[in-house]
Design a protein that fits this description.
Length: about 270
């Protein structure tokens, strides 16, 4: 947790915003962000959602999210952490454009995993998932949560509106108007730093050179092909897969495993619908 010291808290919030731009946020990673060296989305992803947020030094930030029920989206816990960011109170669902299209709904409630802890720079964020309840259902089709992630080597894809410029200078962040995608693969735990990947956190490696989720991509989906070729959700963008300060595109990414939290997701939706 952050110190109550306001100077340290502000520094941590600014740090978090950096990652926000790439889909990882702050303290260790995890806040909001865009994909570096990805491409424009090649198809429609009706389950893709974006959560506008602000933070010190960044008024036009964003986090990603995934529609997993007609009235619920799944995102990263650090994307709704009041110590890091301030959500604007709306969610846009089903659009390939960051500022237009799709369906916009008001936030009716947020539910953070009770075990969420910020890594604070000393390690990965823990239990970095949260649910947002929309004020009313949408027509877009949700993405199913996979029964399990594919084995290491399985092809996956990342989606996000995070920064396309890999920089820790808030003034240099560039958020795309159009949704970005990046083809990746599930990596072995050993491809991330020791203690980062485990059954609840997925190590992820790009299949193209110098590309990865970055600030603003936090909370967004990692998907794989399921039965019949349909996309299914396996990961929630959480942060970098290695410690220390490194450019987003130079290392693996770390994703909260959606299947690992499926029971919590179902129980929370059932109890609050």
């Amino acid at each position: 947790m952050f110190s109550r010291n306001p100077v340290r808290r502000r520094a941590a919030r600014v740090a978090a915003v950096s990652v926000l731009a790439v889909g990882l946020t702050a303290v260790t990673v995890g806040s909001a962000g865009a994909i570096v060296n990805g491409t424009d989305a090649t198809q429609r992803y009706p389950f893709m959602a974006s959560v506008p947020v602000s933070a010190p030094g960044l008024d036009d930030g964003v986090c990603g999210a995934s529609l997993i029920d007609r009235q619920w989206v799944l995102t990263a816990a650090h994307c709704v952490d009041p110590n890091l960011v301030t959500p604007t109170g709306t969610v846009r669902i089903g659009s390939s454009e960051r500022r237009s299209g799709g369906t916009v709904r008001a936030v009716a409630g947020t539910f953070t995993h009770p075990g969420y802890r910020q890594g604070g720079g000393a390690g990965p964020n823990l239990n970095d998932v949260a649910l947002i309840r929309l004020d009313r259902p949408v027509k877009e089709r949700p993405v199913p949560v996979a029964e399990r992630p594919g084995v290491p080597g399985t092809p996956t894809r990342l989606l996000g509106f995070g920064t396309v410029v890999d920089t820790d200078d808030l003034g240099g962040l560039r958020f795309p108007d159009h949704l970005q995608q990046l083809d990746t693969r599930r990596a072995a735990e050993s491809e991330c730093d020791p203690g980062y990947a485990d059954p609840t956190r997925l190590c992820t490696v790009s299949r193209v050179p110098r590309a990865m989720a970055c600030f603003g991509d936090s909370g967004g989906p990692q998907i794989q092909r399921g039965r019949g070729g349909r996309w299914e959700l396996i990961g929630v963008t959480s942060g970098p897969g290695i410690g220390g300060h490194v450019p987003c595109a130079s290392g693996p990414g770390l994703y909260s495993s959606a299947p690992a939290f499926a029971d919590w997701i179902r129980a929370t939706v059932r109890a609050n619908s």
